[in-house]
């Protein structure tokens, strides 16, 4: 695989908050079309990594590039151009509470394009359906939706501009197991049918098994391993062994590999 197939490249990333060093020479590549799961103990800097890559935070040193552009240091034109090629979904969906779901999904479309109202409405409905919501959700406010529907509404908005990369921060957190499984299935279908690259921060072992092509583990300020899940699960590191070898890890493995052939 050549460097040209890497849509995200992080090199020598350093992130410090006062005396706390969160990232200490972190390197990571994300390949076009893959679903990369990013895991690590609480506070290891998964969210800070995501925020740095999408340009919401300028790193202390090192670089994080998306399509070859460092979003925390580029000019406004580059930010707009690359910004329209990525979609973001944060934990709570980050919807505007005073707007309906339809209006929320329309926000990025209006910012980017000057569309007649009828076309805008059609596009909004398309995105809402793509995220697995009924048409009726378009006229509801976020507070009138269940947690799972809010996530889908956030996803619909993240998909508004037909992004090439989707960044998701713990999308199944707070969902019941059935809702989480459905969300995983939706993610897998969307990624395959739209050719999306997905950068997925998660604690959810079932999600890792169900949707990720590769998994990157953060520990000690670095990515200590990024590989296929089966190889990562046997990686010799205390946190990795605790994570995959604990009761939840074993249960998730059994659910995907009931014959124990893994
Ligand atoms: N704006 C900030 N100011 C100061 N410290 C911060 C800031 N943002 C993050 N941190 C610190 O950086 C560390 C990493 O935070 P981050 O949210 O990335 O962890 P995480 O791996 O996503 O954790 P979790 O799995 O619990 O969500 C934490 O110790 C956090 O307190």
From TrEMBL:
- The superkingdom of the source organism is Bacteria
Which segments constitute the ABC transporter domain? 8-245
The reply to whether rRNA-binding figures as a keyword in the UniProt entry is no
Q: Which UniProt keywords apply?
A: ATP-binding, Nucleotide-binding, Transport
Q: Which Gene3D superfamilies match?
A: P-loop containing nucleotide triphosphate hydrolases
Write out the GO MF terms. Answer: ATP binding
**Which Pfam families does the protein's record reference?**
ABC_tran
- The name on file for this protein is ABC transporter ATP-binding protein
Q: What is the lineage of its organism?
A: Bacteria, Pseudomonadati, Pseudomonadota, Gammaproteobacteria, Lysobacterales
């Amino acid at each position: 695989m050549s460097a040209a197939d890497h849509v995200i490249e992080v090199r020598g990333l350093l992130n410090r908050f006062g005396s706390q060093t969160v990232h200490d020479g972190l390197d990571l590549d994300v390949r076009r079309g893959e679903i990369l799961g990013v895991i690590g103990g609480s506070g290891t800097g998964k969210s800070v990594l995501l925020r740095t890559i999408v340009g919401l935070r300028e790193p202390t040193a090192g670089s994080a590039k998306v399509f070859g552009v460092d979003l925390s240091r580029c000019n406004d034109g580059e930010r707009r151009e690359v910004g329209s090629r990525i979609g973001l979904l944060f934990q709570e969906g980050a919807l505007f509470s005073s707007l309906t779901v339809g209006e929320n999904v329309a926000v990025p479309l209006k910012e980017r394009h000057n569309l007649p109202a009828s076309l805008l409405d059609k596009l909004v409905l398309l995105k809402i359906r793509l995220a697995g919501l009924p048409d009726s959700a378009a006229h509801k406010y976020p507070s009138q939706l269940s947690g799972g529907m809010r996530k889908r509404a956030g996803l619909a908005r993240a998909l508004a501009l037909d992004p090439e990369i989707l960044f998701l921060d713990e999308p199944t957190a707070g969902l019941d197991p059935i809702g989480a499984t459905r969300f995983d299935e939706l993610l897998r279908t969307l990624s395959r049918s739209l050719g999306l690259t997905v950068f997925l921060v998660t604690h959810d072992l079932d999600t890792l098994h169900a949707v990720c092509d590769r998994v990157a583990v953060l520990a000690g300020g670095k990515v200590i391993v990024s590989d296929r899940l089966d190889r990562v699960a046997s990686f010799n590191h205390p946190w990795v062994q605790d994570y995959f070898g604990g009761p939840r890890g074993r249960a998730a493995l059994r659910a995907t590999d009931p014959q124990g052939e893994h």
